């Protein structure tokens, strides 16, 4: 098995050619299935790598004839754009961004609807983190005013949610010294004294935050109270969430919000292919690999797969979930 890791791609496996008449998972030719993830220090990238490894032909539960790769990207919006353009077969996205893309609302207001966007599965909750220097005097979101704050790169789901949170507290990007960096570079700049705080939406514990917490004192800024209630009322894809104490070194329990991480694809993808990929994703060997490989892997269950479905399921995924009784 080839297992090559780079900043641009997490490429797993060498395909096995489909062979044998009547093989239930056989394809007439090799299928290449690209999965857009996120930054290399976020949650999407490592989880995507485990999924790609597991569903590839070389995985114990893999789909015969399939080569799956997990590619680093700018996140939700970039992944949906890649699916729409045909540059990727699938991708990770936040549930809010997926719903906006499909309906042409929110972030996609005034833009063409991505009507072919389809859900394979909801994976795990993604937590809104606002990471701050412990000595920056930032106790609430309101304290971000006038501070040097990274809200992530354009094209990410994080930047969308950061703007929603800032707006709820009466803060615009003009009220902060905005930077547009991924979590890794944000942490490095914060450690070097060039940044006071940064936003990140992803499953905890996030590697980039764990790393920065090991080298300097940080805090997590809570998103709670009437402002959070206002967000929940206006944007029902958000949920209340709490980061447990000591998830990150020296940081107490912090109330915040979360959205759902989803694996999405295009309606143009063959039903049989997506059916087999979905079946492989929830096979016993894949489930074991996910549970052992990442803290959020244990949340990737059939029960969670059919929650927060703000867009239609792909027929192949729907067929599988109906077979196992997850959808009625």
UniProtKB/TrEMBL annotation:
Stored SUPFAM superfamilies: Periplasmic binding protein-like II
Keywords: Signal
Top-level lineage group: Bacteria
Keyword Signal (UniProt): yes
Secretion signal span: 1-28
Keyword Cell cycle: no
Name this protein carries in UniProt: TAXI family TRAP transporter solute-binding subunit
Organism whose genome encodes this protein: Tianweitania aestuarii
